[in-house]
Amino acid sequence: MSVLPSPEEIDAARTPKGGWTRAQLAEWGVPWPAEKGWKAELIARWEAAQQVHAPAPPLSPSPRTPAPHQDMLDFG
Questions:
Q1: Residue 7: in which H helix or E strand, if any?
Q2: Beta carbons within 8 Å of 34's beta carbon, 6+ residues apart
Q3: What's the burial of 42, exposed, middle or buried (CB within 10 Å: 0-12/13-18/19+)?
Q4: What are the DSSP E strand ranges found in 1-76?
Q5: How far is the first Cα of the chain from the last one, in angstroms, to the nearest whole number?
Q6: Is 8 helix (H, G, I), strand (E, B) or coil?
C-alpha cells in the first residue's frame, strides 16, 4: 500500500538535483515515469484524507424554546 505524504514530506524528499527518485515515487504510488501533475494529485489526495480524519466540528447550541403559553401568564 502506498503512503500519502504531506506537502512538506514531498518537498523534503527532493534529491540534491531537485527531483525525486524512482524508488521514492514508487513508495508514494506514483508510476514511473511520473506524469505531469503527479505532485498536485498527491497533495490533493493528502488534503482530502486530512478532511476525512479531521475531528467533527462542535454541535451548535439548539435555539431556546420559550415556555408554553408564556405570553398568557399574568403577574399583575
A1: helix 7-12
A2: 20, 25
A3: buried
A4: none
A5: 76
A6: helix
C-alpha cell at 12: 523534503
CB-based contact 47:6 (threshold 8 Å): no
What is the dihedral sign for C-alpha 37, 42, 48, 50?
A: negative
C-alpha torsion angle, residues 36, 42, 44, 48 (rounded to 10) = 160
Q: What is the pLDDT of residue 71?
A: 60
C-alpha cell at 47: 488534503
How many CB atoms are closer than 10 A to CB 28? 20
- For the stretch 22-72, pLDDT in tens is 999 999 999 999 999 999 999 999 999 888 776 656 665 656 655 556 566
